[in-house]
Prior knowledge:
By secondary structure, the chain is mainly α.
Amino acid sequence: MTSGFDAFSLALFTTLAPAGVVAFIALALARLGVPGREAAVRLDRMVALPFSIALVGFIASATHLGTPANALHVFSGVGRSPLSNEVLAAVAFLFLAGSYWMASFKERFPDALARLWLLLGIGAGCMLAVCTSLAYAVRTVPTWDTPFTPANLVLGALLAGPVLGLLCLGAARVRSRGLEAALAIVSFGALAAGAIVLGMHAESLGGIANNEFTAASLVPHYEAAVIAHCALGVLGAAAAAWSIRRTQPERLVIVLRITASILALLAVFVTRIGFYHLHMTVGF
């Protein structure tokens, strides 16, 4: 079993980093299609938010390595270790997103270069999401090595990430009816699919055991966490959807989207904590 601190730091990473990636992609898509220079500049400045969220998650995940020196050994397994691939993808995404944000402050930032940079960032972000979802395919940990693990992580990202993306768009004062509606729909869809997958995951735990204990005994309140996930997710997605309405003040839009982002991230976090406490090896 993992320690409580490990569970917290890793849950923070797999909550924040994937959500930050999806929010960055939402911003990038808005930036690629925005017609005005001023709006493009505001979107470029707002890249700092999803970048910072992903960075905080990455820093939190590094705390379970023991010492900073151990981080250097992670890269030695690139190509054969899922963990090493995940770390490399995270570094690549953070480098591209962070460097793009800094470069965008140049007075003459070529639009063609910006578009290429954003496309590379989108690619790195997708790779990070894929590598993170596959990092727990460990045969000796049957509670993690299931189809539910990557599905839960991706659906969690698609629940919280679009809501964060809406917050970024609102803070940048860019309103795109089509993109905003798409983000709200994706968030609601991920919540519905995620509730089903989490329920199936909880149901499957009773059939997993080693010579010491059953998986269900590790997290006896996992079903309660799933219920909390659904309740928080519904409130968050609903607040995000309500913020899309055009007949409300800009300040209210921001308040609704901040609230929605907090609720959506909490919804993902409660189940991620449970996931890490499910760590169980096959036994002796």
